Amino acid sequence: MTPVELSRTVLHAVRRAVDEGELSVALPERVLVAPPGPGGCGDYSTNVALQLARPAGLPARKVAEVLRPYLLGAGGIGDVVVTGPGFLNFGLRGTAPVGLVREVLRGGLRYGHGDALAGQAVRLNAAHEVRAVVQLDAVARLLRSQGARVHAGCAGPVEVAWGSVLGVRVDGVRDPATPTHHDSPAGTGIRPVPVPAGIDIRPVPAPADPLPLGRDAARWALLRPAPHDRPRLGDEHLVQRESNPLFRIRYAHARSRGLVRNAADLGFGSEPGPVEARALLQGLADHPRALVGAATHCAPDRLARHLVTVADALLPLLPAVLPLGDEKPSAAHRARLALAEAAGTVLAGGLSLLGIDAPDHL
C-alpha cells in the first residue's frame, strides 16, 4: 500500500464511520499520511483524528478509537495503533512493496507529481545572480510538478550562458526597483547566498566548455546546499567516485538501467514482489512528500538530499538483482529487478526536476 492509497483508505474509513452514525463531521478533502514522528510507531501515521476532534465534539483519542476498527484489515494494513493525543499509526503488511513499486513504474518520471498546489499562482522573483537564477529555474520546475501556475522573473537580463549552458529559463525580467515579498505567494523572492566572491564561473571563450563544471555539476553545486549556505564550486563535483553524491545518484541510476538491459539479455523481466529493502522502499514511498515539501518551501536542496538517500539505499541491492553462475531467474530476482527499476526511475525523475541529466551509461 502506497501513501496515496493509505490516505484514501483513511478517508474511506472516516466516511464509513459517518455513515454508521459514529461520527458527525464533514468529510475532509484529503488526509495527510507521513512517517511517524517521535513517540509514533509502524510505517506511517496520520493526525486525522486531531483534525476531526473539534467538529465531532469528541476527544481526539476517542475519534481515533472510533476509526481504528474501520482501518484494521483494510488492504495492506497489518496493524493500527493509537499513540499520543490521538495519532493513528499503521503497520503495513509484507506485500506493501508490490503496490508501491507498481505505482512508481506506472507513474514513470512523473511519479510524485500531483495537484497539491493546483489553483495557486506563484510569482517568483530572482536576484540578478547566477545561483539565484538557477534556484529560480529549479523552484519553478518543482512548483509546476505540483500543479501550481508559475511566473519566473529575474531582476535583470539573463546572461546567454545561464540559458545555453546551465539550462535556465525565465518568463520575464523584473524592474529592480519593484519590491519583492519573500512570504507572499504572489511574489516570492529567490535570494540564496550568492556564489563566493573570487570564483569566476562566467563563460570562457572556448564554446565547447563554457563553464568550468558544465551544466549538471554546476547546477548540483548551486542547488544542493540550502539557500542560506555558501556553495562550493570545486572539482569535487566532477570526480567519479563515492565521495561525490551526484556521482552516486547518477551511478545508481545507470546501474539500474544496465540491470534491466542485462536481465533482458538473460530472458527475464521485472515483476513487483516482496523484497526486504526497508530503507529503499521508504525512500520511494517518501518521494511524493519530498517533492511537495521542496515545492512548498521553494527548497530544491530538500529534493537533492532525498535523492542521495534513495541512491545510497539502492546501491547495496544492485549486486543481488541478477542470478549468479548457473542460477536460474526466480521470482525474487524479478522482484529485486522491479524495485531497482523503480528506484532508478525516481532518481531520474528527481534529477530532471533539478535540471540535471540522468544518463543510462556512465
Automatic annotation (TrEMBL):
Gene3D superfamilies: Arginyl tRNA synthetase N-terminal domain, Isoleucyl-tRNA Synthetase, Domain 1. It comes from the Bacteria. InterPro entries: Arg-tRNA-ligase (IPR001278), Arg-tRNA-synth_N (IPR005148), Arg-tRNA-synth_N_sf (IPR036695), DALR_anticod-bd (IPR008909), tRNAsynth_Ia_anticodon-bd (IPR009080). Signal peptide: none annotated. The keyword Endoplasmic reticulum does not apply. This is arginine--tRNA ligase. Its EC number is 6.1.1.19. Residues 249-362 form the DALR anticodon binding domain. Residues 4-92 form the Arginyl tRNA synthetase N-terminal domain. The keyword Transcription regulation does not apply. It is an enzyme of class 6 (ligase). SUPFAM superfamilies: Anticodon-binding domain of a subclass of class I aminoacyl-tRNA synthetases, Arginyl-tRNA synthetase (ArgRS), N-terminal 'additional' domain. The lineage of its organism: Bacteria, Bacillati, Actinomycetota, Actinomycetes, Kitasatosporales.
